């Protein structure tokens, strides 16, 4: 029963193969087994690849099964269409397009399994890429907020410098009127004279201006510090909102790109393995000598071709003979007087009827 199933998978004509030897049936059963297990591997590979996309086990298995059936049908078609010829070059020529298709199928099958085999290494590459993307994302977002924050800090520094300059000016006026009172500067007279009073008034006015400036600038500084705090909060919130996108950067395309960054030799050998599996039925058919099944299949095909050619030729001969007979018959009829007289009588009757009908129509129109 298992042998019959694998023979069915090989695409061979079971009626012809049933009349062949056991060895011939074993050969096609082996080819069919290769086709079946290749489709099975394609199902597993596609299911894993789709699971990385949809993250749903049942959907992945269902669509993976559909993909496996597609690969099974393609492989079965490829193997069943290769015919043994008496010319090796003709056999190779008909196998080239099928080998190209087998290579494409091998690439499609091997890639998801490579991702599963090297899953830990791929996760490490993805982790490094996510870290780099996180830093780059923070830097790009910071470029949107940094100029504004820097400008606000400069304005705060300018307001503080304005207060500092005013304090320096006030302290200078204070030292001036104190020195005047002590007689160490200015008029040089000890005591609180008119000059002292004038300088003291200047200092008091400057001190009042300083107090007002401090109050005004502190309010401005607090407002700008609130703006900076708000911008920092917006920046942190934006980073937090965009981080899940980076954390979710582990889809199918990301894993394929990560796989390409790993050493190529292990992946290449896995690809060669699946390429060997996929092309083995074709290579086996090309290398195997012309067997009993091939001879019987060729006999059946050539006998049908010969029979069809004979029928086509017979139809052509019948058509040519009928054409000659019809030409001869009608040429003899033309020369018969009875046929001529009968045709003349019918033509005269038709003309009379047409004339009568025309006369009746004209009379009605008057």
From TrEMBL:
- Give yes or no: UniProt keyword Iron: no
According to the record, the segments passing through the membrane are 28-51, 57-74, 268-288
Against InterPro entries, the record matches this protein to:
DUF4407
* Coiled-coil annotated spans: 196-241
- Please tell me whether the keyword Membrane is annotated for this protein: yes
Keywords (A to Z) from UniProt: Coiled coil, Membrane, Transmembrane, Transmembrane helix
Q: What is this protein called?
A: DUF4407 domain-containing protein
């Amino acid at each position: 029963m298992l042998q019959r199933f694998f023979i069915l998978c090989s695409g061979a004509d079971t009626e012809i193969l049933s009349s062949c030897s056991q060895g011939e049936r074993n050969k096609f059963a082996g080819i069919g087994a290769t086709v079946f297990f290749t489709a099975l591997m394609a199902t597993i590979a596609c299911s894993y690849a789709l699971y990385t996309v949809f993250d749903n086990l049942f959907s992945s298995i269902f669509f993976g099964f559909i993909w496996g059936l597609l690969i099974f049908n393609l492989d079965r078609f490829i193997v069943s269409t290769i015919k043994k010829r008496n010319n090796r070059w003709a056999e190779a020529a008909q196998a080239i397009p099928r080998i190209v298709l087998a290579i494409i199928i091998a690439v499609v099958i091997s890639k998801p399994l490579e991702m599963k085999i090297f899953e830990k290494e791929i996760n490490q590459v993805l982790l490094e890429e996510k870290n780099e993307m996180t830093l780059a994302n923070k830097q790009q977002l910071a470029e949107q907020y940094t100029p504004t924050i820097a400008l606000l800090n400069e304005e705060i520094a300018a307001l503080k410098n304005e207060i500092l300059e005013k304090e320096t000016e006030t302290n200078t006026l204070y030292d001036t009127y104190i020195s005047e009172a002590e007689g160490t500067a200015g008029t040089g007279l000890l005591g609180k004279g008119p000059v002292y009073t004038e300088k003291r008034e200047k200092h008091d006015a400057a001190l009042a201006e300083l107090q007002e400036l401090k109050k005004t600038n502190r309010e401005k500084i607090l407002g700008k510090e609130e703006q900076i705090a708000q911008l920092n909060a917006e920046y942190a919130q934006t980073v937090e909102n965009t981080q899940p996108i980076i954390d979710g950067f582990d889809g199918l395309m990301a894993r394929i790109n990560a796989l390409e960054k790993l050493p190529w030799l292990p992946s290449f050998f896995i690809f060669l393995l699946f390429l060997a599996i996929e092309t083995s039925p074709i290579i086996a058919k090309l290398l195997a000598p012309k067997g009993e099944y091939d001879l019987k299949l060729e006999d059946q095909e050539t006998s049908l071709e010969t029979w069809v050619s004979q029928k086509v030729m017979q139809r052509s001969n019948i058509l040519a003979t009928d054409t000659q007979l019809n030409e001869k018959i009608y040429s003899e009829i033309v020369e018969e007087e009875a046929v001529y007289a009968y045709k003349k009588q019918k033509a005269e009757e038709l003309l009379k009827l047409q004339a009568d009908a025309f006369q009746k129509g004209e009379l009605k129109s008057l």
